[in-house]
Design brief:
- The chain is an alpha/beta fold.
- It is about 30% helix and about 15% strand.
- The strands form two sheets. A seven-stranded mixed β-sheet has the order 2-3-6-8-7-9-10, with helices on both faces. A three-stranded mixed β-sheet has the order 1-5-4.
- Helix 6 packs across helix 7 and helix 12 crosses helix 13.
- The structure holds zinc ion.
Length: about 400
């Protein structure tokens, strides 16, 4: 290996060894995503694998823990369930933020891998058992009934799960947001402080592996039934909220909604359909947890206390926007799974609902969280969201109601 540092700030004359034909009908025609760091001449994308974890890889190499040219041994890593291909994979505008062939790399491109090209999966599919105390609660309350197959009497649930790293097709992404590709590239370049010069020096490279978190899918029932028009699907699309999801913080409804969504998914699987939880790494509406905690303080310290009428305004004061999750890209995963219709949709979000229908995915029934599952301190959040257009089973609060402080103070 060369000791030279390869600069990407000036356009190289060589074209990528193997071009990517995004939206081609087969893996062979589409071509592999090659982000090799050891052989720059083979690269056909901007960025590197593993999202933000690339920085830890750099630490591992710098500290001598990891060989710079280590290549993954992919023996026995193939998906535990087969997914696709589905017709949506060959529409370059349907999937723009993940690689539909990302889990099939070791078989689809076995010849190149054997020839020494560093090609890595961006999707992995495995199986697990999960267990959450809320599910035992649902069994005790009689809402869920163990069947000994999908749901066991001790609350264990059999799932298939998939981890997906983002792979962005820049022309498709630009079209999805109705902006110029050049504007998208420039903004990505500038807002990462010039981290990826090829965004502006290599317009011929159309695919970008962004340094962000991806998503995890949890499937309940037979994954092989997805993509068939007769298969009923229940779904919860959940955006990460570490404080509530993992630690049970009661300022929001995230974990209760996640648990409720899983309940709806288990029911659907028990009825012969498929349940799907999509868990997106978009902490704090993709503003990050530092911003989120700053907003919590601002909400609780403001004159008049924590109340729904100022819920979004406090976020906007700190972050400049209310939300950066960009649900426009969220439907891609449904296209990947061949899903055209969601029969039971466990979400109140009008933004998510709008994004799905804009992509031609039908939502049959929207399932609101039962009132009894909402924690008291989360009333501020729920009232604010309902007033802003979230769907719900109860009457939206009026202005007087929204002005009442309902959240705990910082010292309570
Ligand atoms: Zn939350």
């Amino acid at each position: 290996m060369s000791d030279h540092i390869v600069l990407t700030s000036h356009a190289r004359r060589d074209k990528p060894a193997e071009p990517i034909h995004w939206g081609a009908v087969s893996a062979a025609e589409r071509g592999p995503v090659i982000a090799s760091l050891t052989n720059p001449a083979q690269r056909n994308v901007i960025g590197t694998h593993s999202g933000a974890y690339a920085v830890y890889r750099a630490l591992a190499v710098a500290s001598g823990k990891l060989q710079r040219d280590h290549r993954a041994d992919l023996t026995d890593t193939a998906p535990a369930e087969s997914i696709g291909p589905h017709p949506q994979w060959s529409d370059p505008d349907k999937i723009v933020s993940l690689d539909p062939w990302g889990h099939l790399v070791s078989s689809a491109f076995a010849d190149r891998i054997a020839a020494g090209i560093d090609i890595r999966p961006s999707i992995a599919v495995t199986r697990a058992h999960i267990n959450m105390p809320e599910l035992m609660g649902a069994i005790t309350a009689g809402r869920l009934k163990p069947d000994g197959h999908i749901l066991h009497a001790n609350g264990d649930v059999r799932v298939t799960k998939a981890a997906i790293d983002p792979v962005w097709y820049l022309p498709g992404l630009a079209r999805r947001f109705d902006i110029k590709e050049s504007m998208l590239r420039r903004s990505l370049f500038e807002q990462t402080s010039g981290m990826f010069p090829e965004l502006v020096t290599r317009p011929d490279l159309k695919v970008f592996l962004p340094p962000i978190g991806g998503m995890t899918l949890y499937f309940f029932g037979d994954v092989g039934q997805l993509g068939k028009p007769e298969t009923k699907v229940a779904c919860r699309v959940h955006d990460e909220c570490n404080g509530s999801d993992v630690f049970g913080s009661d300022i929001c409804t995230c974990r209760p909604y996640l648990a409720h969504g899983i309940e709806v998914c288990i029911e659907m699987a028990q009825q012969g359909g498929v349940g799907l939880v999509v868990y997106n790494r978009k902490e704090g509406r993709a503003l990050g947890e530092v911003t989120k905690f700053l907003v919590y303080n601002a909400r609780k310290r403001q004159v008049g206390g924590d109340r729904a009428e100022t819920y979004f305004a406090r976020t906007e004061c700190v972050a400049g926007v209310q939300d950066m999750r960009f649900q426009e890209l969220m439907p891609d995963v449904f296209h990947w799974l061949g899903i055209k219709r969601i029969d039971r949709w466990a979400s109140m979000s009008n933004m998510k609902h709008g994004a799905l229908t804009a992509q031609g995915i039908e939502v049959v029934e929207q399932v609101a969280i039962p009132d009894a599952l909402i924690p008291a301190d989360a009333r501020v959040e729920i009232d604010a969201k309902v007033a802003a257009g979230y769907f719900t089973s109860y009457t939206p609060p009026d202005a007087e109601e929204l002005a009442l402080a309902k959240g705990r103070g910082l010292d309570e």
